[in-house]
Amino acid sequence: MFLEQHPWWTSVAPGDEEIVSRQLGRKAHGLLAIARRCRYGCPQVIVNSPVMWGPGRRSERKAGIKPDEPRVFPTLFWLSCPCLVKAVSELERQGWVGRLNAWLRESGREAFMKAAHERAAAERIAAARERDGEKLRRYHPAQWQVLAESGIGGMREKAGVKCLHLHLADYLAGPFGAEAGERPVPTVGITPDARHVPGARNILGAQTLALLLAAGVDITGCTGKGRPCCLGKERGAGGAPAGLAVLDVGTNSCRLLQGQVVENELHIRPVVMAVTRLGQGLNKNGRLTEEAIERTLQGLDRLLGTSTLPHLSLPASSPPFSSPTQSPQTLSPPLSEGPLSGAEGRIVAAVGTAALRMAENAASFLIQAWERLKLAVRVISGEEEAALSFAGARRALMAKRQRHPDLFAGDSGRLLVVDIGGGSTEFMAGSWDGTPRWLRSVPLGAVSLMEKAVSRQTNTVAAMREQVRELLAPVLVDYRRTVPEEAPLLLAGVGGTWTSLAAIDLALEIYEADKVTGYSLTREQVEALADKLEALPLAERRRLPGLQPERADIITSGAAIVLAVMDTWAPDQAVVCDGDLLLALLHQLFHDYYSFVES
Fold first, then answer.
1. How many CA atoms lie within 13 A of 365 on its CB side?
2. Would you call 57 helix, strand, or coil by DSSP?
3. CA distance 555 to 548
4. Residue partners of 523: CB distance under 8 A and separation at least 6
5. pLDDT tens digit string along 261-296?
6. Residue 548 DSSP symbol
7. Beta bridge pairs of residue 34
8. Cα separation of the two ends of the chain
């Protein structure tokens, strides 16, 4: 009955006990269920039987424990995944137990933890077999008291933080996204309205999850960080997933790239995006607004096709930055067919970039994305973003060059990739062999530059170009210290600004990635485009072929960054590339998941 009340859990499958034993470094005992699995299908959080009888371990047999003597285990949920255990241990080493204790007191949320401890005790009692409870109450009242009255992990003191591993395991055992449905959070002693506060199941577990994601830990699997701990597990009868999907949660937009594997080959679909402006207003006080968080969650929900959230009625176009009281449109016009049917059956990985790196309240977004969409958004550093962008651009350009060998005639092999985002710009220098020699992330993108320029009334292309040129002067010095000036440089531009400028110059009514990738832009062409765009009223700019209406108010700031980059490095021209970090992430996920499956 207890397990039936938790349909999002999975039963203990053949091989699970062996994997858990390997994870824990000892033989697993009393496994009731698996509360949470990683993307590879391996246990991350296990459900333990709260009562067992007689000796289980050799030490207990040596101690003379009798067959009718109970052993009570107040830790109902156990974090078994070594990757997560190691990451949480690092948080504790950094002093987060004490810091979260202080946060709990200062935020006035002790009632949430008291409710979580009481809920944990009730779950533990429900998990015990009825006859076990009767025997404990009658013959072992002290053991029964531990089971019935202690909190999470057997904690007697229900006000503070003892072990972050326990709180994260308890939190992850709950239902999230479509698992939750209309199921209320079982909390005792707090008002019904408060039950909808993000993290209400276990406020400390939720904060621990947000800290891990903010540190770049992938809580759903060991993607890109070596082989998973559970290699050797046989795949179930379900076979391969319906597809692979990667998401980029950016300052200006959220983008989805999907692929399906057919006969061990990855078939990639066009990018689908939603302009959500998560970073709008971030420069004012360093915080994400509630409206921006909600817009982004709804955009992600639509992209994933999960339809778990009610959708707002939103205006038909994005406002200019001079009208900050209006709300941007959630979804851009579709540039391609929609996502694969449904979110279930797909392996999904998501990363967050500049806005989530900078926002002091990023945890609020990360927790809500997990609870409402079951989407773990891993916040990557500027350096990792740069490395992924370089890998994606290189892959796309090499594929283009294979089809058109004369495209980069006379190329020296030296490559500088510049990825202009909404809140940051990444610079990567390397060669076609795939190894970047120099990476730099600058916290300025098309959205953040325009916001700052509007506030200072310096939002002409010429003024913004000069501002960025001054910002890039020390970046160029650092570049020249690392990268020798031996041969002509191929400048490759990735990101929405570059691809939009190419699409405008090509007058594309419908965006075509293959036409954009490899397209050359000279400085004179970009200057002419910038002059044309700046002269157009915003309403006319939105109707321009090749330009998404939602990008119309930031395309001039993006063009100013492009011109400043070309001024600084002085190439003859730049090559535009549609491939970026999403392409690299998708291939990384494909490699990690399918190399695991084959093992």
1. 34
2. coil
3. 10
4. 563, 566, 567, 573
5. 887 788 999 999 999 999 998 988 999 999 999 999
6. -
7. 10, 46
8. 36
Q: Taken in order 6, 11, 12, 16, is the CA torsion positive or negative?
A: negative
pTM of the predicted model as reported, rounded to 2 decimal places: 0.86
231-245, 491-505, 572-586 — which is least confidently predicted?
Answer: 231-245
* Residue type at position 486: E
Return phi, psi of residue 16, to 5°.
-65, -45
**Type of residue at 412:** S
The full set of domains in the chain, from first to last, is 3-214 (no CATH), 243-382 (3.30.420.40), 390-583 (3.30.420.150)
Q: What are phi and psi of 195, to 5 degrees?
A: -65, -20
User: 496-506 vs 523-535: helix axis angle to the nearest 10?
Assistant: 90
Burial class (CB in 10 A: 0-12, 13-18, 19+), 34: buried
Cβ neighbours of 240 (radius 10 Å): 16
User: Is the separation of the CB atoms in 155 and 117 below 8 Å?
Assistant: yes
| 430: three-class secondary structure by DSSP | strand
H helix runs in 128-194, sequence order: 130-139, 141-149, 164-172
Q: Which of these, 435, 78, 82, 15, lies nearest to 227 by C-alpha position?
A: 82
Q: What is the C-alpha to C-alpha distance for residues 111 and 117, in angstroms, rounded to an integer?
A: 10
Sequence-separated (6 or more) residues with CB below 8 Å from residue 54? 65, 66, 67, 68, 69, 71
Instruction: Give CA separation, 417 vs 328, 433, 472, 478, 585, in Å.
Output: 30, 14, 15, 16, 17
What are 272's two structure tokens? 């689908």
Cβ distance 23 to 81 under 8 Å?
Answer: yes
| Kind of pairing between the strands at 243-249 and 346-352 | parallel
Q: CA 306, CA 505: separation in Å to the nearest integer?
A: 36
Residue 523: helix, strand or coil by DSSP?
A: helix
Strand 425-431 relative to strand 520-522: parallel, antiparallel, unpaired? unpaired
Reduce the secondary structure of 80-129 to three states and give it as a string.
Answer: CCHHHHHHHHHHHHCCHHHHHHHHHHHHCCHHHHHHHHHHHHHHHHHHCC
pLDDT in tens, 186-196: 444 444 444 45
223 pLDDT more than 60: no
